UniProtKB/TrEMBL annotation:
Residues 1-21 form the signal peptide. Keywords: Signal. Transmembrane segments: none annotated. Gene3D superfamilies: 3.40.50.1460, PGBD-like superfamily/PGBD. This is Caspase family p20 domain-containing protein. InterPro entries: Caspase-like_dom_sf, Pept_C14_p20, Peptidoglycan-bd-like, PGBD-like_sf, PGBDSf. Residues 21-96 form the Caspase family p20 domain. It comes from the Bacteria. One of its GO terms (biological process) is proteolysis. GO terms for molecular function: cysteine-type endopeptidase activity.
Amino acid sequence: MKMRRLIPVLLLWFLGVQAHASNLALVIGNQDYESLGTARGAAVVAAAGDALEDMGFRVFSGEGLSTEEIRAQLSGMHEDILRDGAERVVVVLAGHFGHSRSGGWFMGSEAEAQGLALADGQGLRLDIVLEIAALASDSAVIWLGDSDGAVALGNGLEAGLPQRLMVPQGVGVVRGRPDQVLDGLRQTLRPGTALSSVVDRNRNLSGEGAIPTLVPFLPEGYAPTARADQRAFAAAQETGTEEAYQAYLDTFPNGQNAQAARAALERIRNSPERLEDALMLTRAERRAIQNDLVVLGYDTRGIDGIFGPGTRGAITNWQRHNELPDTGYLTQDQIFQLARQGADRTLELEAEERARREAEERRDREYWAATGAVGDEAGLRRYLERYPEGIFAGLAGDRLEQIAAEAEEALRSRDLAAWRRARGRDDVAGYEAYLDDWPDGGFADVVRSRLRDLQTDSDGAWPPGRDNAAIRRARAQEQQLGLAEPTRLLIEQRLARLGFDPGPVDGVFDDQTREAIAGAQERFDLQPTGYVNQDLLTMLVSNLFREFFR
Protein backbone atom coordinates (compact mmCIF):
# COMPACT_ATOMS: atom_id res chain seq x y z
CA MET A 1 0.00 0.00 0.00
CA LYS A 2 1.32 3.44 -0.91
CA MET A 3 -0.09 6.81 0.10
CA ARG A 4 1.16 10.31 -0.63
CA ARG A 5 0.10 13.92 -0.42
CA LEU A 6 1.79 15.91 -3.16
CA ILE A 7 1.99 19.70 -3.22
CA PRO A 8 2.98 20.94 -6.70
CA VAL A 9 5.68 23.37 -7.64
CA LEU A 10 2.96 25.94 -8.08
CA LEU A 11 2.49 26.10 -4.31
CA LEU A 12 6.08 25.83 -3.07
CA TRP A 13 5.89 22.37 -1.55
CA PHE A 14 9.62 22.63 -0.75
CA LEU A 15 9.02 25.65 1.48
CA GLY A 16 6.39 24.12 3.66
CA VAL A 17 4.34 27.32 3.10
CA GLN A 18 0.61 26.99 2.54
CA ALA A 19 -0.12 29.23 -0.45
CA HIS A 20 -3.61 30.00 -1.71
CA ALA A 21 -5.03 26.98 -3.58
CA SER A 22 -7.05 27.37 -6.80
CA ASN A 23 -6.96 23.83 -8.29
CA LEU A 24 -7.17 20.65 -6.19
CA ALA A 25 -7.25 16.97 -7.13
CA LEU A 26 -7.73 13.58 -5.47
CA VAL A 27 -6.27 10.56 -7.32
CA ILE A 28 -6.63 7.02 -5.88
CA GLY A 29 -5.95 3.76 -7.72
CA ASN A 30 -6.84 0.58 -5.81
CA GLN A 31 -5.69 -2.38 -7.87
CA ASP A 32 -4.68 -4.87 -5.18
CA TYR A 33 -7.41 -6.00 -2.76
CA GLU A 34 -6.93 -8.36 0.17
CA SER A 35 -10.18 -10.31 -0.33
CA LEU A 36 -12.00 -9.08 -3.42
CA GLY A 37 -9.31 -9.90 -5.97
CA THR A 38 -7.37 -7.64 -8.34
CA ALA A 39 -9.03 -4.63 -9.96
CA ARG A 40 -7.36 -4.91 -13.35
CA GLY A 41 -5.77 -1.75 -14.70
CA ALA A 42 -6.67 0.45 -11.74
CA ALA A 43 -3.03 1.32 -11.02
CA VAL A 44 -2.64 3.22 -14.31
CA VAL A 45 -4.50 6.22 -12.94
CA ALA A 46 -1.49 7.05 -10.76
CA ALA A 47 -0.14 8.82 -13.84
CA ALA A 48 -3.10 11.20 -13.61
CA GLY A 49 -1.50 12.74 -10.53
CA ASP A 50 1.59 13.74 -12.50
CA ALA A 51 -0.51 15.20 -15.32
CA LEU A 52 -2.54 17.25 -12.85
CA GLU A 53 0.57 18.49 -11.03
CA ASP A 54 2.03 19.59 -14.36
CA MET A 55 -1.01 21.80 -14.81
CA GLY A 56 -0.67 23.38 -11.36
CA PHE A 57 -3.04 21.21 -9.32
CA ARG A 58 -2.34 20.34 -5.74
CA VAL A 59 -2.78 16.58 -5.67
CA PHE A 60 -3.80 14.24 -2.85
CA SER A 61 -3.10 10.70 -3.98
CA GLY A 62 -2.44 7.10 -3.07
CA GLU A 63 -2.50 3.48 -4.22
CA GLY A 64 -3.99 0.43 -2.51
CA LEU A 65 -5.61 2.50 0.23
CA SER A 66 -7.91 1.20 2.94
CA THR A 67 -11.27 2.84 3.55
CA GLU A 68 -9.88 4.92 6.41
CA GLU A 69 -6.91 6.03 4.31
CA ILE A 70 -9.20 7.01 1.44
CA ARG A 71 -11.28 9.08 3.84
CA ALA A 72 -8.11 10.72 5.19
CA GLN A 73 -7.05 11.82 1.70
CA LEU A 74 -10.53 13.12 0.92
CA SER A 75 -10.57 14.93 4.28
CA GLY A 76 -7.24 16.60 3.48
CA MET A 77 -8.60 17.95 0.20
CA HIS A 78 -11.82 19.02 1.91
CA GLU A 79 -9.90 20.98 4.57
CA ASP A 80 -7.93 22.84 1.89
CA ILE A 81 -11.11 23.72 0.02
CA LEU A 82 -12.70 25.09 3.18
CA ARG A 83 -9.58 27.01 4.16
CA ASP A 84 -8.35 28.38 0.82
CA GLY A 85 -11.19 27.78 -1.61
CA ALA A 86 -10.83 26.00 -4.98
CA GLU A 87 -11.62 27.08 -8.53
CA ARG A 88 -11.43 23.58 -9.96
CA VAL A 89 -11.68 20.15 -8.35
CA VAL A 90 -10.78 16.86 -10.05
CA VAL A 91 -11.36 13.44 -8.46
CA VAL A 92 -10.04 10.25 -10.08
CA LEU A 93 -11.06 6.91 -8.49
CA ALA A 94 -10.20 3.51 -10.00
CA GLY A 95 -10.78 0.05 -8.52
CA HIS A 96 -13.74 -1.99 -7.33
CA PHE A 97 -17.09 -0.22 -6.87
CA GLY A 98 -20.31 -1.43 -5.28
CA HIS A 99 -23.85 -0.12 -5.44
CA SER A 100 -27.40 -0.58 -4.25
CA ARG A 101 -30.62 1.31 -4.85
CA SER A 102 -29.51 3.91 -2.28
CA GLY A 103 -26.16 4.80 -3.88
CA GLY A 104 -22.63 3.70 -4.71
CA TRP A 105 -19.35 3.03 -2.88
CA PHE A 106 -15.66 3.05 -3.83
CA MET A 107 -14.28 -0.01 -2.02
CA GLY A 108 -11.23 0.11 0.25
CA SER A 109 -8.40 -2.37 -0.21
CA GLU A 110 -9.45 -4.29 2.94
CA ALA A 111 -13.11 -4.67 1.82
CA GLU A 112 -14.83 -8.04 2.23
CA ALA A 113 -18.17 -9.44 1.08
CA GLN A 114 -20.12 -8.19 4.10
CA GLY A 115 -23.18 -6.85 2.30
CA LEU A 116 -25.17 -3.64 2.29
CA ALA A 117 -25.53 -3.31 6.06
CA LEU A 118 -21.76 -2.87 6.47
CA ALA A 119 -21.06 -1.10 3.19
CA ASP A 120 -20.09 2.21 4.82
CA GLY A 121 -17.33 0.41 6.72
CA GLN A 122 -16.03 -1.25 3.54
CA GLY A 123 -15.80 1.74 1.25
CA LEU A 124 -16.34 5.46 0.62
CA ARG A 125 -19.80 6.69 -0.34
CA LEU A 126 -19.72 8.39 -3.73
CA ASP A 127 -22.37 10.94 -2.77
CA ILE A 128 -19.92 12.33 -0.17
CA VAL A 129 -17.27 12.73 -2.88
CA LEU A 130 -19.79 14.50 -5.12
CA GLU A 131 -20.87 16.84 -2.33
CA ILE A 132 -17.29 17.89 -1.53
CA ALA A 133 -16.41 18.35 -5.22
CA ALA A 134 -19.44 20.64 -5.60
CA LEU A 135 -17.65 23.19 -3.37
CA ALA A 136 -15.45 24.21 -6.34
CA SER A 137 -16.14 27.77 -7.43
CA ASP A 138 -15.59 27.10 -11.17
CA SER A 139 -15.94 23.47 -12.16
CA ALA A 140 -15.58 19.94 -10.80
CA VAL A 141 -15.16 16.63 -12.63
CA ILE A 142 -15.30 13.14 -11.09
CA TRP A 143 -13.54 10.44 -13.14
CA LEU A 144 -14.55 6.88 -12.17
CA GLY A 145 -12.50 3.96 -13.51
CA ASP A 146 -14.42 0.70 -12.99
CA SER A 147 -12.41 -2.47 -13.54
CA ASP A 148 -15.57 -4.42 -14.50
CA GLY A 149 -14.50 -7.23 -12.19
CA ALA A 150 -17.26 -9.63 -11.20
CA VAL A 151 -16.81 -9.66 -7.43
CA ALA A 152 -19.22 -10.74 -4.72
CA LEU A 153 -19.88 -8.00 -2.16
CA GLY A 154 -22.55 -9.69 -0.04
CA ASN A 155 -26.30 -9.43 0.36
CA GLY A 156 -27.89 -6.26 -0.99
CA LEU A 157 -24.68 -4.93 -2.55
CA GLU A 158 -23.82 -5.42 -6.23
CA ALA A 159 -20.45 -4.95 -7.90
CA GLY A 160 -19.83 -1.99 -10.20
CA LEU A 161 -21.12 1.55 -10.50
CA PRO A 162 -24.83 2.39 -10.30
CA GLN A 163 -26.52 3.25 -13.57
CA ARG A 164 -27.07 6.81 -12.45
CA LEU A 165 -25.78 9.00 -9.65
CA MET A 166 -27.42 11.95 -7.91
CA VAL A 167 -24.96 14.53 -9.26
CA PRO A 168 -24.97 18.02 -7.65
CA GLN A 169 -25.17 21.13 -9.82
CA GLY A 170 -21.86 22.17 -11.33
CA VAL A 171 -20.30 18.69 -11.06
CA GLY A 172 -19.60 16.42 -14.01
CA VAL A 173 -19.12 12.65 -13.74
CA VAL A 174 -17.25 10.64 -16.37
CA ARG A 175 -16.97 6.85 -16.13
CA GLY A 176 -15.09 4.19 -18.07
CA ARG A 177 -12.23 1.73 -17.78
CA PRO A 178 -9.20 3.05 -15.85
CA ASP A 179 -7.03 3.45 -18.96
CA GLN A 180 -9.83 5.27 -20.80
CA VAL A 181 -10.38 7.54 -17.82
CA LEU A 182 -6.66 8.43 -17.77
CA ASP A 183 -6.67 9.20 -21.50
CA GLY A 184 -9.81 11.33 -21.23
CA LEU A 185 -8.39 13.30 -18.29
CA ARG A 186 -5.19 14.07 -20.18
CA GLN A 187 -7.21 15.41 -23.11
CA THR A 188 -9.33 17.54 -20.80
CA LEU A 189 -6.23 19.12 -19.27
CA ARG A 190 -5.26 20.65 -22.61
CA PRO A 191 -6.14 24.36 -22.36
CA GLY A 192 -9.17 25.26 -24.48
CA THR A 193 -10.64 21.71 -24.41
CA ALA A 194 -14.29 21.29 -23.40
CA LEU A 195 -15.23 18.23 -21.38
CA SER A 196 -18.09 17.38 -23.74
CA SER A 197 -15.73 17.09 -26.71
CA VAL A 198 -13.60 14.54 -24.85
CA VAL A 199 -16.62 12.43 -23.91
CA ASP A 200 -18.05 12.64 -27.43
CA ARG A 201 -14.78 11.54 -29.10
CA ASN A 202 -14.39 8.48 -26.85
CA ARG A 203 -17.39 6.20 -27.04
CA ASN A 204 -15.99 4.13 -24.15
CA LEU A 205 -16.55 7.08 -21.82
CA SER A 206 -19.96 8.18 -20.57
CA GLY A 207 -20.78 11.39 -18.78
CA GLU A 208 -23.55 12.78 -16.63
CA GLY A 209 -24.16 15.97 -14.70
CA ALA A 210 -22.39 19.17 -15.76
CA ILE A 211 -20.62 18.31 -19.05
CA PRO A 212 -19.99 21.76 -20.62
CA THR A 213 -20.01 21.95 -24.42
CA LEU A 214 -18.74 25.49 -24.94
CA VAL A 215 -16.69 26.34 -21.86
CA PRO A 216 -13.31 24.56 -21.73
CA PHE A 217 -12.21 22.97 -18.49
CA LEU A 218 -8.96 24.98 -18.67
CA PRO A 219 -9.17 28.25 -20.59
CA GLU A 220 -7.22 28.90 -23.77
CA GLY A 221 -3.77 30.24 -22.90
CA TYR A 222 -3.88 28.80 -19.39
CA ALA A 223 -0.33 29.22 -17.98
CA PRO A 224 0.10 27.51 -14.62
CA THR A 225 3.79 28.34 -14.41
CA ALA A 226 3.25 32.12 -14.41
CA ARG A 227 0.62 31.81 -11.72
CA ALA A 228 2.85 29.48 -9.71
CA ASP A 229 5.69 31.98 -10.03
CA GLN A 230 3.64 34.77 -8.54
CA ARG A 231 2.22 32.66 -5.73
CA ALA A 232 5.59 31.13 -4.91
CA PHE A 233 7.18 34.57 -4.65
CA ALA A 234 4.32 35.80 -2.47
CA ALA A 235 4.84 32.81 -0.19
CA ALA A 236 8.58 33.51 0.00
CA GLN A 237 7.85 37.14 0.90
CA GLU A 238 5.45 36.05 3.62
CA THR A 239 8.05 33.69 5.12
CA GLY A 240 10.86 36.19 4.64
CA THR A 241 13.74 33.75 5.19
CA GLU A 242 16.83 32.99 3.15
CA GLU A 243 15.60 29.44 2.63
CA ALA A 244 12.27 30.66 1.26
CA TYR A 245 13.79 32.98 -1.34
CA GLN A 246 16.44 30.43 -2.32
CA ALA A 247 13.76 27.77 -2.81
CA TYR A 248 11.85 30.16 -5.08
CA LEU A 249 14.99 30.81 -7.17
CA ASP A 250 15.78 27.09 -7.36
CA THR A 251 12.38 26.54 -8.99
CA PHE A 252 12.12 29.79 -10.97
CA PRO A 253 15.73 30.84 -11.69
CA ASN A 254 14.53 33.06 -14.53
CA GLY A 255 11.09 33.82 -13.12
CA GLN A 256 9.39 37.14 -13.30
CA ASN A 257 10.29 37.77 -9.64
CA ALA A 258 13.82 36.35 -9.75
CA GLN A 259 15.52 39.75 -9.55
CA ALA A 260 13.45 40.80 -6.56
CA ALA A 261 14.16 37.46 -4.87
CA ARG A 262 17.91 37.89 -5.37
CA ALA A 263 17.75 41.41 -3.95
CA ALA A 264 15.90 40.10 -0.92
CA LEU A 265 18.51 37.35 -0.50
CA GLU A 266 21.27 39.93 -0.61
CA ARG A 267 19.58 42.00 2.09
CA ILE A 268 19.14 38.95 4.30
CA ARG A 269 22.71 37.75 3.83
CA ASN A 270 24.09 41.19 4.59
CA SER A 271 21.78 41.83 7.53
CA PRO A 272 23.43 42.62 10.86
CA GLU A 273 22.14 39.35 12.28
CA ARG A 274 23.66 37.30 9.45
CA LEU A 275 26.96 39.17 9.65
CA GLU A 276 27.18 38.40 13.36
CA ASP A 277 26.18 34.76 12.76
CA ALA A 278 28.97 34.48 10.18
CA LEU A 279 31.50 35.29 12.91
CA MET A 280 30.56 31.97 14.57
CA LEU A 281 31.24 33.31 18.05
CA THR A 282 31.92 30.64 20.66
CA ARG A 283 30.22 30.57 24.04
CA ALA A 284 33.43 31.82 25.66
CA GLU A 285 33.72 34.69 23.18
CA ARG A 286 30.12 35.69 23.85
CA ARG A 287 30.79 35.69 27.59
CA ALA A 288 33.85 37.90 26.99
CA ILE A 289 31.67 40.36 25.04
CA GLN A 290 29.08 40.38 27.82
CA ASN A 291 31.84 40.98 30.38
CA ASP A 292 33.16 43.96 28.37
CA LEU A 293 29.66 45.43 28.22
CA VAL A 294 29.18 45.01 31.98
CA VAL A 295 32.60 46.56 32.69
CA LEU A 296 31.53 49.56 30.60
CA GLY A 297 28.32 49.90 32.59
CA TYR A 298 25.79 48.19 30.32
CA ASP A 299 23.46 45.64 31.94
CA THR A 300 23.36 42.35 29.98
CA ARG A 301 21.22 40.58 32.65
CA GLY A 302 23.86 37.93 33.10
CA ILE A 303 27.18 36.71 31.72
CA ASP A 304 26.22 33.31 30.37
CA GLY A 305 27.30 33.33 26.72
CA ILE A 306 23.69 33.63 25.52
CA PHE A 307 22.70 36.78 23.67
CA GLY A 308 19.14 37.27 24.88
CA PRO A 309 17.07 40.47 25.09
CA GLY A 310 19.24 41.84 27.90
CA THR A 311 22.47 41.47 25.93
CA ARG A 312 20.89 42.77 22.72
CA GLY A 313 19.64 45.83 24.60
CA ALA A 314 23.10 46.40 26.09
CA ILE A 315 24.71 46.14 22.62
CA THR A 316 22.17 48.62 21.21
CA ASN A 317 22.87 51.14 23.99
CA TRP A 318 26.63 50.76 23.51
CA GLN A 319 26.26 51.31 19.75
CA ARG A 320 24.22 54.47 20.30
CA HIS A 321 26.75 55.81 22.80
CA ASN A 322 29.50 55.25 20.24
CA GLU A 323 27.44 56.73 17.35
CA LEU A 324 27.20 53.37 15.56
CA PRO A 325 24.12 51.89 13.83
CA ASP A 326 22.03 50.62 16.74
CA THR A 327 21.18 47.21 15.28
CA GLY A 328 21.74 45.19 18.44
CA TYR A 329 24.15 42.94 16.48
CA LEU A 330 27.93 43.21 16.39
CA THR A 331 30.39 43.31 13.52
CA GLN A 332 33.95 42.11 13.87
CA ASP A 333 35.26 45.70 14.02
CA GLN A 334 32.73 46.55 16.72
CA ILE A 335 33.81 43.53 18.77
CA PHE A 336 37.44 44.71 18.59
CA GLN A 337 36.39 48.24 19.55
CA LEU A 338 34.33 46.94 22.45
CA ALA A 339 37.22 44.75 23.62
CA ARG A 340 39.62 47.72 23.60
CA GLN A 341 37.21 49.85 25.57
CA GLY A 342 36.59 47.01 28.00
CA ALA A 343 40.31 46.46 28.53
CA ASP A 344 40.92 50.19 29.10
CA ARG A 345 38.04 50.41 31.54
CA THR A 346 39.26 47.28 33.35
CA LEU A 347 42.66 48.93 33.89
CA GLU A 348 40.92 52.04 35.19
CA LEU A 349 38.79 50.00 37.56
CA GLU A 350 41.82 48.06 38.79
CA ALA A 351 43.67 51.33 39.46
CA GLU A 352 40.64 52.71 41.27
CA GLU A 353 40.38 49.53 43.31
CA ARG A 354 44.07 49.68 44.25
CA ALA A 355 43.70 53.30 45.35
CA ARG A 356 40.59 52.43 47.34
CA ARG A 357 42.32 49.50 49.03
CA GLU A 358 45.39 51.62 49.90
CA ALA A 359 43.21 54.35 51.41
CA GLU A 360 41.21 51.79 53.34
CA GLU A 361 44.40 50.16 54.59
CA ARG A 362 45.70 53.52 55.83
CA ARG A 363 42.48 54.14 57.72
CA ASP A 364 42.66 50.60 59.10
CA ARG A 365 46.19 51.08 60.45
CA GLU A 366 45.38 54.50 61.89
CA TYR A 367 42.34 53.16 63.74
CA TRP A 368 44.34 50.22 65.05
CA ALA A 369 46.95 52.54 66.42
CA ALA A 370 44.23 54.50 68.23
CA THR A 371 42.33 51.49 69.60
CA GLY A 372 43.59 47.94 69.38
CA ALA A 373 47.28 48.72 69.68
CA VAL A 374 46.67 49.95 73.25
CA GLY A 375 45.92 46.33 74.13
CA ASP A 376 42.87 46.71 76.37
CA GLU A 377 39.65 44.78 75.76
CA ALA A 378 37.53 47.86 74.98
CA GLY A 379 39.98 49.09 72.33
CA LEU A 380 40.26 45.68 70.72
CA ARG A 381 36.48 45.32 70.52
CA ARG A 382 36.06 48.81 68.99
CA TYR A 383 38.59 47.89 66.31
CA LEU A 384 36.80 44.64 65.45
CA GLU A 385 33.42 46.36 65.30
CA ARG A 386 34.70 48.68 62.57
CA TYR A 387 37.10 46.29 60.84
CA PRO A 388 35.88 42.70 61.39
CA GLU A 389 37.99 41.64 58.38
CA GLY A 390 40.72 44.21 58.92
CA ILE A 391 44.48 43.85 58.75
CA PHE A 392 44.77 43.30 62.52
CA ALA A 393 41.50 41.39 62.98
CA GLY A 394 43.31 38.11 63.62
CA LEU A 395 45.68 39.68 66.14
CA ALA A 396 42.80 41.45 67.90
CA GLY A 397 40.87 38.20 68.12
CA ASP A 398 43.85 36.36 69.59
CA ARG A 399 44.39 39.08 72.21
CA LEU A 400 40.71 39.05 73.18
CA GLU A 401 40.85 35.28 73.59
CA GLN A 402 43.91 35.69 75.80
CA ILE A 403 42.18 38.35 77.90
CA ALA A 404 39.10 36.14 78.22
CA ALA A 405 41.25 33.17 79.24
CA GLU A 406 43.03 35.26 81.89
CA ALA A 407 39.70 36.55 83.20
CA GLU A 408 38.35 33.02 83.31
CA GLU A 409 41.40 31.84 85.21
CA ALA A 410 41.04 34.67 87.72
CA LEU A 411 37.37 33.82 88.14
CA ARG A 412 38.17 30.19 88.77
CA SER A 413 40.79 31.22 91.34
CA ARG A 414 38.30 33.38 93.27
CA ASP A 415 35.69 30.61 93.07
CA LEU A 416 38.20 28.10 94.43
CA ALA A 417 39.18 30.44 97.27
CA ALA A 418 35.51 30.92 98.24
CA TRP A 419 34.99 27.17 98.19
CA ARG A 420 37.99 26.61 100.39
CA ARG A 421 36.68 29.15 102.92
CA ALA A 422 33.24 27.49 102.99
CA ARG A 423 34.80 24.05 103.23
CA GLY A 424 37.02 25.24 106.05
CA ARG A 425 33.96 26.32 108.05
CA ASP A 426 31.86 23.32 106.95
CA ASP A 427 28.64 24.74 108.32
CA VAL A 428 25.33 25.90 106.92
CA ALA A 429 26.17 29.59 107.14
CA GLY A 430 29.46 29.13 105.34
CA TYR A 431 27.96 27.15 102.49
CA GLU A 432 25.03 29.55 102.14
CA ALA A 433 27.49 32.45 101.93
CA TYR A 434 29.29 30.65 99.10
CA LEU A 435 26.03 30.17 97.17
CA ASP A 436 25.11 33.83 97.65
CA ASP A 437 28.34 34.88 95.94
CA TRP A 438 28.71 31.99 93.51
CA PRO A 439 25.23 30.58 92.64
CA ASP A 440 26.63 29.15 89.39
CA GLY A 441 30.13 28.52 90.65
CA GLY A 442 32.19 25.49 89.89
CA PHE A 443 31.44 24.00 93.33
CA ALA A 444 27.77 25.04 93.61
CA ASP A 445 26.42 21.51 93.16
CA VAL A 446 28.81 20.11 95.76
CA VAL A 447 27.86 22.88 98.20
CA ARG A 448 24.15 22.23 97.78
CA SER A 449 24.66 18.52 98.38
CA ARG A 450 26.66 19.22 101.53
CA LEU A 451 23.97 21.64 102.74
CA ARG A 452 21.36 18.91 102.41
CA ASP A 453 23.55 16.58 104.41
CA LEU A 454 24.04 19.17 107.14
CA GLN A 455 20.33 19.91 107.30
CA THR A 456 19.33 16.24 107.67
CA ASP A 457 22.13 14.72 109.77
CA SER A 458 22.05 14.52 113.54
CA ASP A 459 24.13 17.64 113.97
CA GLY A 460 21.86 19.71 111.74
CA ALA A 461 18.40 21.07 112.50
CA TRP A 462 15.23 22.06 110.82
CA PRO A 463 14.21 24.79 110.41
CA PRO A 464 17.66 26.23 109.72
CA GLY A 465 18.95 28.07 112.77
CA ARG A 466 16.76 26.14 115.25
CA ASP A 467 18.32 23.31 117.19
CA ASN A 468 16.52 23.26 120.53
CA ALA A 469 15.81 20.20 122.66
CA ALA A 470 12.30 19.69 121.27
CA ILE A 471 13.59 19.61 117.69
CA ARG A 472 16.34 17.20 118.61
CA ARG A 473 13.84 14.87 120.30
CA ALA A 474 11.52 15.00 117.28
CA ARG A 475 14.41 14.20 114.94
CA ALA A 476 15.44 11.28 117.13
CA GLN A 477 11.87 9.93 117.23
CA GLU A 478 11.68 10.00 113.41
CA GLN A 479 15.00 8.17 113.16
CA GLN A 480 13.70 5.50 115.58
CA LEU A 481 10.72 4.88 113.28
CA GLY A 482 13.19 3.73 110.58
CA LEU A 483 10.99 4.99 107.74
CA ALA A 484 11.69 2.97 104.61
CA GLU A 485 11.50 4.62 101.20
CA PRO A 486 7.98 3.23 100.38
CA THR A 487 6.74 4.68 103.68
CA ARG A 488 8.34 8.04 102.92
CA LEU A 489 6.72 8.04 99.49
CA LEU A 490 3.33 7.24 101.07
CA ILE A 491 3.75 10.08 103.59
CA GLU A 492 4.58 12.56 100.81
CA GLN A 493 1.55 11.38 98.80
CA ARG A 494 -0.77 11.76 101.86
CA LEU A 495 0.60 15.25 102.54
CA ALA A 496 -0.07 16.26 98.95
CA ARG A 497 -3.60 14.74 99.17
CA LEU A 498 -4.27 16.82 102.30
CA GLY A 499 -3.33 19.99 100.43
CA PHE A 500 0.25 20.41 101.63
CA ASP A 501 3.03 20.72 99.06
CA PRO A 502 5.84 18.31 100.00
CA GLY A 503 7.80 19.06 96.82
CA PRO A 504 8.83 16.19 94.55
CA VAL A 505 7.34 12.86 95.71
CA ASP A 506 10.69 11.09 95.77
CA GLY A 507 11.07 9.73 99.32
CA VAL A 508 13.54 12.51 100.26
CA PHE A 509 12.44 14.79 103.12
CA ASP A 510 13.86 18.19 102.14
CA ASP A 511 12.98 21.62 103.55
CA GLN A 512 9.75 21.78 101.57
CA THR A 513 8.75 18.34 102.86
CA ARG A 514 9.50 19.46 106.44
CA GLU A 515 7.27 22.51 105.94
CA ALA A 516 4.44 20.23 104.73
CA ILE A 517 4.92 17.89 107.73
CA ALA A 518 4.77 20.84 110.12
CA GLY A 519 1.59 22.07 108.46
CA ALA A 520 -0.04 18.65 108.83
CA GLN A 521 0.99 18.49 112.51
CA GLU A 522 -0.69 21.84 113.15
CA ARG A 523 -3.89 20.60 111.48
CA PHE A 524 -3.93 17.49 113.69
CA ASP A 525 -3.17 19.57 116.83
CA LEU A 526 0.31 18.10 117.13
CA GLN A 527 3.53 19.97 117.90
CA PRO A 528 4.76 21.32 114.50
CA THR A 529 8.33 20.06 114.61
CA GLY A 530 8.58 19.15 110.91
CA TYR A 531 9.60 15.59 111.83
CA VAL A 532 7.39 12.50 111.61
CA ASN A 533 6.47 10.76 114.84
CA GLN A 534 4.17 7.85 115.63
CA ASP A 535 1.18 10.11 116.27
CA LEU A 536 1.43 11.86 112.89
CA LEU A 537 2.03 8.56 111.13
CA THR A 538 -1.08 7.10 112.79
CA MET A 539 -3.13 10.15 111.78
CA LEU A 540 -2.02 9.94 108.15
CA VAL A 541 -2.63 6.17 107.90
CA SER A 542 -6.00 6.23 109.69
CA ASN A 543 -7.13 9.07 107.44
CA LEU A 544 -6.11 6.94 104.45
CA PHE A 545 -8.29 4.02 105.65
CA ARG A 546 -11.27 6.28 106.21
CA GLU A 547 -11.00 7.49 102.60
CA PHE A 548 -10.63 3.93 101.39
CA PHE A 549 -13.81 2.64 103.11
CA ARG A 550 -15.82 5.77 102.48
